[in-house]
């Protein structure tokens, strides 16, 4: 991958109280970056600009800046992916908070505010999405200093990005007058919905309008007071969900009844557009929500012909294209302004001007019942991953990789038998009342209905080929008897 020269961390922001708590929202699916980004493994978990994922880049911004450990609010399905990616970059003390159902950003932020307020209601929350890019950490640090000062005065602060082009995919903020005694902090005159192309031209030209970054800074007590004032149902139901939360391994699982009853509403509609405390800090630190393949092309290093490439790609007389392959070789010749993305199970081709329309194709795939709309061929689990190799009428072949010292659940199937062939590493296989050591180039048969478990006792990943046979081969044909990861469904 081409390296993007950027320091991911910001310099120390403030000293002394109150503390600053980064809150990372990781609930989106990023359908406009399909086929890389899908519900099972969305864009924040991919290394799109550097050798680190977007989630890792976001979490690292507070490292070394005197900030508290981050809170990550996420889909329960992604909890092990998030924990592992944070560990990979040395973040071991994050609080990972699990949403039982998706309820947009206002309930998620309220949950984080309640958790922080339990011990420090004066703490400042720095709320940001897990899937945005920032290229100038120094400028971000300066803007954050201004935002924190404003938040300590009881304001609800957002960052407004200086527009670089008429963009129809972003909302806008109209900047009002500068607030006395707060440098670089302005009143919000108005929030503007995503405009038409003509209106976007006008907004950019007048110099008063900024892109709405979706990042917010406010004290925990301010967030809770504004939520209670403008969305009392969010406040009461999330308060209940936090009070009824349970510890699940290293995760905090919000109460399902309370959180599920909270209105599905964004923080923009719930607070930002209603509050009398709204303020904006203008910024110019290379922010992008990477909301389309065209935006990723703009941020990526390019060759002399304006092409950005990733993976096994060959070009011939192509200009201003973005070509990415995470699977087979991709060749592109004699074209201009195209987006070409190749994965193991899908290919997407679009004109760069229509990059925002990829989500419409995802909707069509969903309507057609295609699994490619939501999940990848490779499926990650807390113990490793598996991926499909061959699919037949009554059989399928998978590759399974189990990380060192990890193990699958103790389980059985009603509709399929399995044959495991170890190709790398050593496996301990439980089959009913027996345990077997299975080494490289050895195999074991698991008849239909037997109780079994796979474990990697070694120091290197265990790789095996699994052949399933039977009348039904769905992942929901699992009766889980025991599981170290506290799961109740799937794999």
Automatic annotation (TrEMBL):
Q: Where is the Mannose-6-phosphate isomerase type II C-terminal domain?
A: 369-483
Which residues does the UniProt record annotate as the domain Nucleotidyl transferase? 22-303
Q: Does the keyword Isomerase apply?
A: yes
Q: Which Pfam families match?
A: ManC_GMP_beta-helix (PF22640), MannoseP_isomer (PF01050), NTP_transferase (PF00483)
Q: Which UniProt keywords apply?
A: GTP-binding, Isomerase, Nucleotide-binding, Nucleotidyltransferase, Transferase
Which GO-annotated molecular functions does the record name?
GTP binding; isomerase activity; mannose-1-phosphate guanylyltransferase (GTP) activity
Give its E.C. classification number: 2.7.7.13
This chain belongs to the protein called mannose-1-phosphate guanylyltransferase
**Source organism:** Neoasaia chiangmaiensis
